[in-house]
Amino acid sequence: MEGASSPGMATRSSSTAPPLLLLLTLSILLTSPVHANAGVPAATKPLADHLALAASFREAPAFRNGRGCAPQSDPAAAIHIAMTVDTTYLRGSVAGVLSVLQHASCPENIVFHFLASSPRRLRPIVAATFPYLSFRMYRFDAALVRGKISSSVRRALDQPLNYARIYLADLLPRDVVRIIYFDSDLIVVDDVAKLWAIDLGPHVLGAPEYCHANFTAYFTDRFWLDPAFAGVFEGRGRRPPCYFNTGVMVIDLERWRQGGYTGRLEGWMRVQKRRARIYELGSLPPFLLVFAGAVRPVEHRWNQHGLGGDNLEGLCRDLHPGAVSLLHWSGKGKPWLRLDARRPCPLDSLWAPYDLFRRHGSDDLFANS
Length: 369
Hints:
Elements: E1 13-14, H1 19-31, H2 44-54, E2 79-84, H3 90-103, E3 110-116, H4 119-129, E4 134-139, H5 168-171, E5 178-182, E6 186-188, H6 192-196, E7 205-207, E8 209-210, H7 221-224, H8 227-230, E9 243-244, E10 248-252, H9 253-259, H10 261-275, H11 284-291, E11 296-297, E12 326-328, H12 335-340, H13 348-351
Parallel strand pairs: 2-3, 2-5, 3-4, 7-11
Antiparallel strand pairs: 1-4, 5-10, 6-12, 7-10, 8-9
Helix pairs in contact: 2-4, 10-11
GO cellular component, one term: Golgi apparatus
Organism: Colocasia esculenta (Wild taro)
Protein name: Hexosyltransferase
């Protein structure tokens, strides 16, 4: 049972809903005649909407642990992954989850933590699509970032849920001490246990870094001309600060909590909102301001990002040179939208096999999300 939660508090759901009961209820609702002038009880319509949305996805197969996997009951064997879910990106999230499970050596030891603005609506969809998945769902209260978000170059970057990754340490239970964060527009094509096993050392956060990128471009002239701002990176580490993409991160939640990093990120958001416009790219720059130069580098293979093009046009792009463990459609162009429009980029065909969306008769469910 879910109830209202205060800002910063989580409403948690486990994946124990019997899929057979859910499917029987769905069958009754979808096959019963509905007349235009029929009075539909207010309490029934939301349930029907939820089940209709759930029916728009095929059920994923069950994935079982291979030989040598630790028992599922062993907490030390769990791999914790966090993602956000909403109706706009749900199709991408579902594909991402399926890709993780399909390539994992011990899929039953993976626990997903979903952050959602409407968990009551989305939990049944996840449970019906992945009946065997271990997951918890938490309510992200948009009030946490109210008054802290400033407009950016793309509207999608301004949505409150895009900032939920800042609050993982506050929303997740204290017994979760380490987390992998994944964006909802990526697929994993390698065993996620390899990413989980990365030694963070003394670092709070690990991610692929891209030191060839023009780091100065992520901040405005106003930022670089003010020594009080520009000096924030001095003395942070042995290396100069580098760009990293926040769509793939390994985070030590214990160190995060001890260091008060949520407050540090919020502090830069307040500077941007109230004092000076120092960046243009949503939730990314605060992470760069707090962590750049102090990130545990991860192999580039774990974030082949930018496949969605830039933030304005979303043009097709090629893979970066090197091995690939994760494909990330960061940028404006999303594979499911381009495939539906019959204008796919070549690499979108790599995403398509993980798409569980039912195309016949239900495509309009996402049209106005």
